[in-house]
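ARCHIVE CARD
Drawer: 12
Card no.: 0347
Subject: one protein chain, sequence and derived structure
Cross-reference: see card 0346
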Amino acid sequence: MTSGPDDSSDDTDPRRWARAQERIEDLLLGGPRTMTRGEVHERTGLSPEHTARLWSALGFPATPDDVRGFAEADLEALELSGRLLDTDTFDAVEELAVARALGQGLGRLAEWQANLVRRTIVDAGQADDPDAVVAAVETLVPTLERLQSYVWRRHLAVTAGRILSGLADPEGEGAAGNRTVVGFADIVGFTRLSRQIDETELRSLLERFETVCTEVVARRRGRIVKTLGDEILFVCDRVEDAVDIAFRLHEEVPDDGGQITLRVGMALGEVLPRYGDVYGPVVNIAARLTSEARPGSVLVDEDLTEALRATDLDLEIRAVPPLSVRGYRHLRPHVVRERP
C-alpha cells in the first residue's frame, strides 16, 4: 500500500515543516492569513497608504497587493489604532512614532523569545522534529505572553504612581520640569576584550554586566533607558540615588578575573522623554564625560557637582581640567569618590 502525500513521517519532508509553520502562525495570529491589502482597506476604511506606513513603522516587511498576507489579528490591530486616532488619544504623527517604538522594542523581544524556543528544542534533542517545535511554541508562548503583560502593567503602575505624585505635589522634590540625572556606564576596552575571548565567554561577560547593572539601578530607584552592547544609559530623579548607583556599579560589576572595568559619566539637567527614550544636551554631556572618564572613576558635570555639594553625603569631589570636546567647548567636570 502506498502512503498518501500527508502520511509521511520523514522529519526532513518540507511539507511537514510547512504545516508546522502554518500551525504556529495560527496559534500566534489567531488564524490564517486570508486578506489582501485591498480587503483590509475595505473592512477598516483606512487608506492603503495609511496602512502601509503603519505596517512599515511596526517593522514588518511590505506585502504585495495581490498577496493574502493579513490575518484577522492584523485587522483588529489596525482598527484599534484607528480607534485611538478617533478618540484624539494621539494624532497621525504620534501614531507612527508609537508604532515605531512598539515595533523596535517588541521586535527585539520577539527575536530573543524565538531564540529561547530554539534553544529549548535543541537542548532537548528535538530540533529535527517539526511537531516538537510546534509543541514547544504551544507550551512557552502563552506563559511568556502572560509574563510580558504582567511586567508591562507593573512598570506602568510604577510610572503612573510617579506621575501622580508629581501632580499631587507640584512644589515637591523634582518639581523643576524634567530635571533628571542622566548617566552612562560602559566597559573599558570592550573592543579589545571581545577579540581576546571566545563567544561563550563574551556572552557570559555581557550577561553579568547587564544583570548586575539592572539590579543596581533598580535597587536605587533608577531606570535603565537602554543597553547599547557594552554600555548602559540610565536616569534617576534623585542625585543621592544617582551617585550611589555609580559607586555600586564600580563595586559590583567587575568580575573576579578582572576582565570588566567600568567608567561612569553623569550630568544633571532637563531631558525630553520620548517613547521610553530621553533626549537633550544633558544626555550628550553625560556621554562625553563617560568617554573622558578614567577606568574606575565617576565624572560629573558642574550642575550635578553643585547639587551633590548641597546634600549631606560624605563625598570627595575634585575638579579636573576643563574638557574641550566636540559641541561643548568648556566642560568643567569633577571626579566624585566615596570617602574611605
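Annotation on reverse: The longest strand covers residues 179-187. Confidence is low (pLDDT under 50) at residues 1-8.
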